[in-house]
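Support request, please re-run this one:
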Amino acid sequence: MIAVLPFLLDAIAFAQMLWPDFLSVERTYVTTVSAAFFGAAAAFALEVWRRKREEVESRHASLFKSQLVLHSQLNSLLNIKIQHLDEFRANPSRFLNLPQFISGHTEQRIDPQSIWFLPLLTRNMDAMNSVVIADLAYGNSIDVLTRRNQTKKRIETSPRSKVMTSIRSVDNTADVLMDQRDLLDLKGITDGLYECVDEAIKLQENAMSDLCVVIKQCFPGRMSMKGKGYSAQSFPEAVSPAVRPPAP
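Re-run finished. Output below.
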């Protein structure tokens, strides 16, 4: 045992000599691992923040684009209403007096998939339904206008109609030599055009108002368009010269 003691003392002395180097290597290793871990965590957090920001920007852009489409559709409807429909609105023979007309309407439509996230933001389907229904109402109005033009053209060129070009009006009544079926067809689709356009304008304003509320609540400080309150003054380009309000 006494013979082994010198070797044990030498081993302890050697270990004491290496201990500082071991601690230095351990500290370097721990520092390197910690730096790598926190660096990876920071990079991950930055990537999450970047993706979240991109998602916010993308969603806001989709909602604002939908507002622009609704604005364009509403402008087209106001053009149809103010420049064409209002002139004959109170006329009992409007289905005869309202001529065929081609309105420069927008072809832009809303893709429901572009606003799929809307129910997640509002926690209900109200705003989503409002936008989709308004877009469908606009498309329906344009379809009815097209069918009305086609119906009037068909009646005018039909051999059964002797007089589409010579109508005698007496006391707001029209005496027309026309097939009764064509008369009812034209009246029905003309009344339908007025109803569709009037209803679509209301739905467009409601949808724009709903999107305005969503943007203000979910994307505060970001750009949004006005909700309700559209009028002829809001769209001077949609007002014909005959009904354009005088300049102040």
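Residues 163-174, 229-248 have pLDDT under 50 and may be disordered. The first strand starts at residue 168 and ends at 170.
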